[in-house]
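Researcher: For the record, we're logging two predictions in this thread. I'll number them. Prediction 1 follows.
Model: Prediction 1, sequence and structure:
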Amino acid sequence: MSVVVPVHGKLPYTLACLRSIARHGAQAPFEVIVVDDASDDDSAATLARIDGLTLLRNPRNLGFIGSCNAGAAAARGEFLCFLNNDTQVTADWLDALLRCFAERADCGIAGSRLVYPDGRLQEAGALVFADGSCWNLGRFEARGRPAHGYRRETDYVSGAALMIDAALFRRVGGFDSRYAPAYYEDVDLAFAVRQAGRRVYYEPASTVVHCEGISSGTELSGGVKRYQPVNRARFAEKWSAALAAQPAAGTRLEQAVHARRRGQILVIDAVAPDATRDSGSLRLCAILRLLGEQGWQVRFAPDDGRAGAAELAALGALGVEVLHRPWVRDLPGWLREHGRELHAVMLCRHNVAGPYARLVRRHAPQARLLFDTVDLHFLRERRAAELTGNAALARQAQASQRNELALVAASDASFVVSPHEQALLRQLRPAARVELLSNIHEVHGCRQPHAARRDLVFIGGYGHPPNSDAIRWLAGEILPRLREALPGIRLHVLGDLPDAVRSELATPGLELHGRVAELEPWLDGCLASLAPLRFGAGVKGKINMAMSHGVPVVATTIAVEGMRLEDGVDVLVADDAAGFVAAVSRLQRDETLWRQLSAHGLDNVRRHFSAAAAAAVLRRVLD
């Protein structure tokens, strides 16, 4: 990685810029190249005394474009990051730009969020209109606004903080010298990158403070700034064909910023998803990503109105705008104002979807209404009632069934996660459109052999009733009997767990880790994953996750329902404690069986729970 900083005088600003780079650094290795453009102060002499800096000196003043091209020619990095000397960077600024390239294979340029020293937003990407005029998005607005908090494609980003693939920069000829000394070279570069088949992204996770006007002034009548209108005419002439596809001057900004999107989709769920928290969140994040990849502008609204910094960052990286407090206090009011802009609305879970379905029909009558059951709540509640004999829960299951079936009937399409639930709804509501949109998992593969593995794992948060029942069954009956047959074996429980129940569940060999940052180390080292669910519905993310890492699973009949798994071939099924003991014992002594289950589990995820399968369903419903 090479950071190129062109300078012409203004030494105090240059030193402040370099000091901020040194302070915040980056995880990725990088070099800093300062190009002194024949400064008329003591910049060159001072900068020459800074260790670790590569200093280039132009024999004469070449301007911004000439200096950037000279720095790029000397750079050794795979990526180039052009940075004005009147900027100061913040934590993670460089790594965030690199992540944009890593996570978006089509990325050709990534640009930082630019803010003024007083904290107001200066630029969140920029628009180019058909006449060659430009508009910096977000200028003078609060930088926390949802509209500027997510990664998105944009027409161009300012050269004040711009990263580009070095090979691509050279292939398109660098900054075009026809715009020398400066202005419109960054716009031109963006158009050249798109012509080469790549895209330009605004990356809000990278924040750079920019003292606008220090290096080039702000008046069009004098200094370097006077080249701006001249170069606009040159740009319009060079790119006349491409500009014909740009929005007309005067187009509403909200419309222009989404000009490349197919339409707008709103997704509403109870809370903001966190892919590290639960299977439902992992699935929803994958759906949001797929919608963005299919060209939709995606907005997400948590019914509780809350979204933390980590959730905003994760969803922002997916290209999702989050409608949250304090920016959106009243979601029904937002629907009244913006409903006519929506192509589709997806409502998740019947307890959330119920209150919003009528609002969507009223304020967005043109929008396709999609109901994502997540799992059939009435089926899970009915089974829990049967297991416990709880009459109140049985009545709740009946109410949930009425609500869910009414939403299925009222929606243009409904999503379920298992073939069993799809068949059930087709029986109960034969006229409704019910699509199978199951869990979505990446296939990680088996990374450790049988001989390197030991112990067992259970994945799932205690707050989900089927999980809390399973953990209690594990602690009270299954694990003690396992340790009688296999002394020393341990069970690692990974998932949110209230402190109040930890002492209550204390059992020799039971290790309660709570939510962990990474599942991979546990799944790469365990012998098997257990899923002793005695009630529930849908497909089980804990089973998918284990199988995606090549970990054999021992599960109940209820747990494997609808997952197209065959006992003894893809999974081992056990419905009592003795069955779990026998299954784990087999896996410990029979390496051939273990390897067979590992391979077949991986294949099951590839065939039934892949992103490609989910993408096909979304495309079919929305097209």
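Researcher: Logged. Prediction 2.
Model: Prediction 2, sequence and structure:
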Amino acid sequence: MNTLNHGFYRVAAAIPQVKVADCRFNIKKIKDLIRKAVENKVEIVCFPELSVTAYTCADLFFQKTLTQEAEKTIEWLKKETETLPVTFIVGVPVEHNSKLYNCAVVCREGKIYGIVPKVYLPNYSEFYEKRWFEPYRLDIPVIEINYAGDTVAFGANLLFNFDGVKFAVEICEDVWSVIPPSSYHAMAGAQALFNLSASDELIGKQHYVKSLISQQSARCQAAYVYAGAGFGESSTDLVYSGNAYIYENGKLLAESERFQFDEQLIINEIDIELLDAERKKNTTFISRPVPDNYREIVVCSSTGSLTTKEDESGYSELYRTINPTPFIPATENYDESCEEIFSIQVSGLAKRLVHTNVKSLVLGISGGLDSTLALLVSVKTIDKLGLSRKMIHGITMPGFGTTNRTYTNALHLMGALGITSREISIVAACEQHFKDIGHDPSVHDITYENIQARERTQILMDIANQTNGLVVGTGDLSELALGWATYNGDHISMYAVNTGIPKTLVRHLVRWVAENQMDDLARATLLDILETPVSPELLPVDAKGQMTQFTEDVVGPYELHDFFLFYTLRYGFRPAKIFFLAQKAFHKVYDKTVISKWMSVFYRRFFSQQFKRSCIPDGPKVGSINLSPRGDWRMPSDASAEIWL
């Protein structure tokens, strides 16, 4: 596979203008779009079903004149494109042994590499394909036929290998069948699937088609490129709107504009490394029965030109957008997703509370984001169980670095939510401990900081004993990844509701709760907490009582670390690829030097801090990434980060 492209391969779905039964007109339009694809550095482009003749020729398919002309124009197209570095797939009727097949012809640089016949022929409602064509079967061995001047492999079970990327083809109705041929293609190793289609337009049909393709792409853990017939097909009884889609593992990357009269070429990149990562993790995919009757055909190697040209800003061109916040729910289902995430946290805590039969929930409330989210989860849990909010004991524990802003917000929030609140200063206890162990309190080192964190944890644990309670942990997924927690301090609790929530998502959840589930008093406090800089507040305040310790100044921006975390754990991408993606996602925010600096910090901390993750408390998994040693992530505590750095 060409690593210059970081695993990206540019594909396209083309919708040409057609004239029914005018092969010469159609083939020239196809050629024009092939040239346009080359100009846009497309690697593989797919055309609609029977695009050489048009799909709606009806009984004209019985005419030898039409089928011979189609073959001649394919031969002409081969010669016209022999210097063009692009693989193209066109639809054409192919005659063999006095039978006519609805086929896809796979070509590149003057050569036909294979012909794939349609397996399932629709013969219901407005479709009459069995009147003209012969269906094919997947269990028929691949044969050789002579077509358009080449001796060509012919069969439904062809697998094409292009520069290490394997792709296969099915045609229209095939994907509507109970077990589509593409399912077998994927089991045989196809990472990209191409569908040449001519599905007519009906009310509501488009939504069904998109759902169908999305599901097949996700089920096969593959890219799926769909090219549907458009303007120019016969409108005697039907209309064709030109539907074209590019999906990747169920996600829509690009789609055409419907009911357009002009030709269209939709382009995007598919991420083969992403698809391979999904398949490696999926044990049902790994243990699949591999069909043994496939023939693999090698198509010539890639030119490597896709992402080597850089634009003026210095970043390689991509059609696809790289989301800088991959943990944040999409806009179209944002509210639903936030409610679901919050409900997972609530359900986990509710089960633990009911099982242990405790009489209180104990939390340290700092006036920061994490403890705020944990408190909101606790309140919702108590409400759903029909219990009194007074069961929740919120303890604010001001220390050497506590600012008036966070202190006030902690008190206001507890008051607004109607829980039991207590204030216990840790200053005297920490000063005594400095004396006990002989530590100079003017030395603000790691000992100075961790003494405070462990003192707070001791208070919470002891109050839980006093009240027959359970200490609710507040630390989040990002802090676990970076090891930004004091071992046997805030690292420890009896149930940790935020362990599956990265820092970028914590902020969104708190805002969502504030805007959707809180009264004006609580909302005002929550919004101010959202505006407060992230800090452990373990170093003394300045002369004006202002915060002097800012987490992101020390470990780096959480939005970058969450981005690194997502692509490292979700797909196992190489650092070079994650760096490439980060440049694309954050090019308006951070330059290459800044991204590189914090990426190194991420890998160093992630590897060196595994020992903390090896003994974290229970907590609910929320998204696709979790660091629990009992769940998603098992890693030696003494593994080396050298090759990642």
